[in-house]
Amino acid sequence: MKSNWQGRISIVSLVKVPVVRYFGGVKICVVGKGGREHALIRALRESASQPEVFCFPGSEAIHEIEGAGMVEANDLDSLISWMMMTGIDLCIAGEESYLVTGEGLANRCDEAGIPCWGPPFKAAQMEASKEFAKEFMQRHEIPTGAASGCADVDEARVAIGGKYPTVLKFDGLAAGKGVAVCPDESAAEEFLQEGMVERRFGPGRLLVE
């Protein structure tokens, strides 16, 4: 099923807050489960246009918002199928992890003919991978600090080389908790233990700056 959104909805940015201009009934699916998605859905439901709003996977707090619909899906494949069957006019990628899951939410939406507010998989790597972003900046001569990518604790210790303070960054998405400014060896070892041994943030590399 192709979306019939053309001429009915447009997205503009005002102080980084998405504004929906609506010219008829539309169905919007917001993807994510955090405070950002909660704010988006509440704003959409309180808007004068009153679009029909759904959220995946959502949270208890989100589903308490009056008019926030449930989505019958449990992964990206079933989400795309559900949006096609439901006739979703716009998908809003609130949580960035879905943009780099599998083939990427925006890419899958494009294949299904569903407009998606969010970058495609390759562009989303700029946020999803700190090492990718660092290499991109170096390749295009964009001023940035020197850094070394490391696969394990031993490589990280060599990259640090006993020089402090140092900044350690988990390469992937870590809900805003994957960076540590380490003033000394003790702080660095604590972060290395959490990030590279206990894998608090999941599998991934480390960036030493």
Reported by name, the CATH topology of the largest domain is Rossmann fold
Helix content, binned percent = 25-40%
- Largest sheet, if any? 5 strands, parallel
What value does the average pLDDT take?
87
Largest sheet strand order? 5-4-3-6-7
The total strand number stands at 11
Rg over CA atoms, rounded to whole Å, is 20 Å
Shape label: elongated
Query: How many separate domains make up the residues?
Result: 2
Query: Structural class of the secondary elements?
Result: alpha/beta
Number of helices: 8
Q: pLDDT below 50 for ≥5 consecutive residues: which ranges?
A: 1-24
CATH C-level label of the largest domain: Alpha Beta
Spatial separation of the terminal alpha carbons: 48 Å
Question: How much strand content do the residues show?
Answer: 15-25%
The name of the CATH architecture of the largest domain is 3-Layer(aba) Sandwich
N-to-C order of helices and strands? EEEHEHEHEHEHHEHEEHE
Write the SSE topology.
Blueprint: E1 9-14, E2 17-22, E3 27-32, H1 35-46, E4 52-57, H2 60-63, E5 68-69, H3 76-86, E6 90-93, H4 105-112, E7 116-117, H5 121-128, H6 130-139, E8 148-150, H7 153-160, E9 166-170, E10 179-182, H8 185-197, E11 206-208
Parallel strand pairs: 3-4, 3-6, 4-5, 6-7
Antiparallel strand pairs: 1-2, 8-11, 9-10, 9-11
Helix pairs in contact: 5-6
Please provide a written account of the structure:
β1 and β2 form a beta hairpin. The protein folds into two domains: 117 residues, Rossmann fold (3-Layer(aba) Sandwich), CATH 3.40.50; 80 residues, ATP-grasp fold, A domain (Dna Ligase, domain 1, 2-Layer Sandwich), CATH 3.30.1490. It is of the alpha/beta class and 209 residues long. The longest helix is centred in the last third of the chain and has 13 residues.
